[in-house]
Amino acid sequence: MLDLHRVRADTPGCLGQAFLDSAGSSLPPRVVTETVITHLRREAEVGGYRAAAERADDLADVKTALAALLGAQPGDLALTESATRGWADFFYSVPLAAGEKILVSEVEYASNAIAALQRARSTGAVVEVVPSTPTGEVDLDALARMLDERVRLVSLVHAPTNGGLLNPVREVVDLAHAVGALVLLDACQSVGQVPVDVVALGVDALSGTGRKWLRGPRGTGFLYVRPELAATMEPAALDLHGAQWTEESGYRLAPDASRFEFWECSVAGRLGLGAAVRYLLDLGIDEIEQSVSALAEYTRTELAAVPGVTVRDLGVDRTGIVSFTVAGVDPTRVRESLAAKDITVTVSGRGSTYLDMSRRGLDAVVRASPHYFNSFDDVDRLVEAVDGR
Ligand SMILES: *Cc1c(COP(=O)(O)O)cnc(C)c1O
To answer: Is pTM, for the whole model, over 0.90?
Structure first.
């Protein structure tokens, strides 16, 4: 059991409001904010190079901590400025030729889909959409029928941005690998709220972000690349960190996933990410999952009992994302009237998950995403406000 009193005391932002947007940009624990600010101050005193050198061990620990969370090795990770940056760094490096295929899931995140469509245009490859089952997960039978040796990559979203379902991963990986296709997992909404083990899942690459469930700073993210691939793949873009200029017309790639990184970064942000992951590891991801799941289920049950409210979540296995609509009220209006009562939720619009929302005839949903630092009182405040009480 998590010590709710302690984690709330560590989270100044959660006092005095019901903050229910960890799927958007969560509230960092105090240690994260302090880490970032302290480093920025130090940079102002001694310059960025010296300040970074002083924190070399902590900087190395960012990957060590992330690797511990993901069941990976530090060298399998590239630190990026966002989940999308990491996703794109891998995706644009996968060789594609005319007639080859990229499969995407129906709950695909817009940025991934746009990149896939762009590459299809430039290479002559084809993007195909794997349908979902009636309960919302990727349809494994349909996937099996769509897979053949022309498929180069399957893009799978672990937990979609607009609803509470969790997709099966291992089954997708096994099917894809049987025809030699790679699996790139968008774990932006899962890492930090549910256990994610890259070896158990068998994915070829995985992207995640700092600012959501990990409670890290904005402008941080990461990419995991399976070590055999990281050692052989040529990144689409390189700099003097991903490769070394060793002769007039030659360079040598870094031996591991750091070949996908660029040299320059927000050092303060990275240190903050490291602090966030250490904080999470300290609490334990299993405890976090239990707590998030209990809060989210409570939110669904209570909201569903409010007249006019429809909970829109699909999925058998569910996450901390709760999506709903209120009959006759625009989701943006719902968000704004909740904000006026110090209740923070967000709206997920059709443009973020175009295929899924279009299929379900939805323009937008209200998204409430409780994290373990939320109390059941926070949820009660949300439900009462939605109910107009
Ligand atoms: C938020 C989100 C992203 C993008 O994360 P960034 O850190 O903004 O790049 C990608 N995929 C899903 C499913 C998301 O919800």
So the answer is: yes
